[in-house]
């Protein structure tokens, strides 16, 4: 097992490891089938009971919640890096901003070459803003995070009202023009066969994917800032508060951590469990699915992220056979996140096995456990020989504009 570096915080590494594993279980849908299926499951590959079971499991336990946790951990990482830079006599901004610029480059490459659902570019852009707040105490960071969540979720009220009006017009008999517009909206959720065929063709090679991204939506990574950037920033600030208060490092008294795990996880499970039941009962009718999945779930994502963090801290010791492997995955979260996309490209892209658009939702999820196993195997194997993950090393070297030592030596690792 790879030894942990002396300056690592094992709890953060364990949290980060489980988060990056969880993210793949959601991203695999975006890798394996058309984008519309990611946002509205009946749009593609959703015919059997197993597809509904896998959707419900991800909806209740993973989707949105693990991204919230990952975003919180990114914010905690910003505070940690800046603190250590200041402690070593360096200007924190001189350390932080080169890191964000290089991360943006990686994110754009990831978007254009591999996956439309990249989050790295959004993290880099919002991280540039988040730096402004890293010195604040935990209480102020928490207040700002709550303000951010209120702002990011405010449009949901308007959208829900609009959707309720549309539903009323459909059921109570609107004008022919209004009913036609509603029917068009319903139809738009499920792409036409020609659109699906074009999407599949765009995945015949990496070059074809890149050409499509550049032609259809070249600015999407930057449009994520007004899109969901406020929520991302709020989650980062919440993570900074969690780090500064000692919550995310496991320094809280066990009783307080148990309370957070119990209350936050219970609230999340109650909402998402009840919503999944309602959606399944309505057979994914858009007027039930869209508000429960896209509008009202937002406030519960940070709650779930905090609850998951607390539960993981309670369940995983700071060291041990399993904990060390998961921590190794977390130490290489950047490599594992992008590495999972490379595996997805190999499996689904036409340049590899060409399985894109050939599998149902449940079938594509069968690749998740083997990829998790791969992460848990190769991460400690690599770290036993090298100081950083391969992409962590590249990111570090580029941000510092110098060749960082990579191979592990027998002396104590200070990296």
Which short descriptors sum up this protein?
415 residues, mainly alpha, 19 helices, 73% helix, disordered C terminus, membrane, transmembrane, transmembrane helix, DUF418, DUF418 domain-containing protein
Task: Give the arrangement of secondary structure elements.
Layout: H1 10-32, H2 35-39, H3 49-61, H4 65-87, H5 92-113, H6 120-130, H7 138-172, H8 176-188, H9 193-201, H10 206-216, H11 220-245, H12 254-281, H13 286-295, H14 300-315, H15 321-331, H16 333-348, H17 361-365, H18 368-383, H19 390-400
Helix pairs in contact: 1-4, 1-15, 1-16, 1-18, 3-12, 4-5, 4-11, 4-14, 5-6, 5-19, 6-11, 7-11, 7-13, 12-13, 12-14, 15-18
Walk me through what this model shows.
With 415 residues, the chain is mainly alpha-helical. The protein has one domain (10-400). Helices cover 73% and strands 0% of the residues. It is built from 19 helices and no strands. The protein has helices at residues 10-32, 35-39, 49-61, 65-87, 92-113, 120-130, 138-172, 176-188, 193-201, 206-216, 220-245, 254-281, 286-295, 300-315, 321-331, 333-348, 361-365, 368-383, 390-400. Helix 1 packs parallel to helix 16 and helix 7 (138-172) runs antiparallel to helix 13 (286-295). The two termini are 17 Å apart. The model is unreliable at 1-5 and 411-415 (pLDDT under 50). It comes from Croceibacterium mercuriale. Residues 243-401 form the DUF418 domain. This is DUF418 domain-containing protein. The chain crosses the membrane at residues 18-40, 119-136, 141-159, 228-248, 260-280, 300-316, 337-359, 365-384. Keywords: Membrane, Transmembrane, Transmembrane helix.
């Amino acid at each position: 097992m790879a030894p942990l570096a002396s300056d690592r915080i094992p709890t953060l590494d364990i949290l980060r490891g489980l988060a990056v594993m969880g993210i793949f279980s959601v991203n695999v849908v975006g890798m394996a089938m058309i984008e519309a299926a990611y946002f509205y499951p009946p749009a593609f590959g959703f015919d059997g009971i197993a597809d509904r079971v896998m959707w419900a499991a991800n909806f209740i336990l993973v989707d949105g919640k693990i991204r919230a946790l990952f975003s919180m951990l990114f914010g905690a990482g910003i505070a940690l890096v800046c603190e250590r830079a200041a402690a070593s006599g360096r200007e924190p901004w001189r350390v932080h901003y080169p890191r964000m610029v290089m991360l943006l480059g990686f994110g754009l490459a990831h978007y254009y070459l591999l996956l439309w659902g990249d989050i790295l570019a959004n993290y880099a852009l919002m991280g540039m803003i988040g730096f402004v707040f890293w010195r604040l105490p935990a209480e102020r960071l928490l207040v700002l995070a709550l303000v951010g969540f209120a702002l990011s979720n405010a449009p949901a009220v308007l959208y829900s009202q609009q959707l309720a009006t549309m539903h009323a017009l459909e059921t109570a008999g609107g004008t022919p023009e209004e009913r036609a517009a509603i029917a068009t909206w319903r139809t738009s959720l499920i792409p036409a066969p020609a659109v699906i065929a074009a999407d599949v063709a765009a995945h015949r090679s990496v070059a074809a994917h890149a050409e499509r991204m550049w032609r259809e939506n070249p600015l999407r990574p930057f449009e994520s800032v007004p899109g969901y950037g406020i929520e991302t920033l709020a989650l980062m600030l919440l993570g900074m508060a969690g780090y500064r208060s000692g919550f995310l490092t496991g320094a809280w008294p066990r009783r307080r951590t148990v309370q957070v795990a119990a209350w936050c996880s219970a609230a999340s499970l109650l909402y998402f469990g009840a919503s999944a039941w309602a959606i399944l009962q309505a057979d994914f009718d858009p007027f039930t699915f869209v508000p429960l999945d896209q509008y009202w779930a937002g406030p519960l994502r940070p709650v779930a992220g905090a609850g998951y963090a607390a539960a993981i801290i309670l369940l995983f010791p700071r060291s041990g056979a399993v904990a060390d492997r998961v921590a190794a995955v977390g130490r290489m979260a950047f490599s594992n996140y992008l590495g999972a996309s490379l595996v997805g490209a190999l499996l689904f892209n036409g340049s590899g096995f060409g399985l894109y658009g050939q599998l149902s939702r449940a079938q594509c999820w069968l690749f998740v456990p083997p990829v998790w196993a791969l992460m848990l195997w190769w991460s400690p194997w690599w770290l036993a020989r090298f100081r950083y993950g391969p992409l962590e090393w590249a990111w570090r070297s580029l941000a510092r504009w110098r060749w960082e030592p990579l191979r592990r030596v027998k002396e104590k690792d200070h990296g």
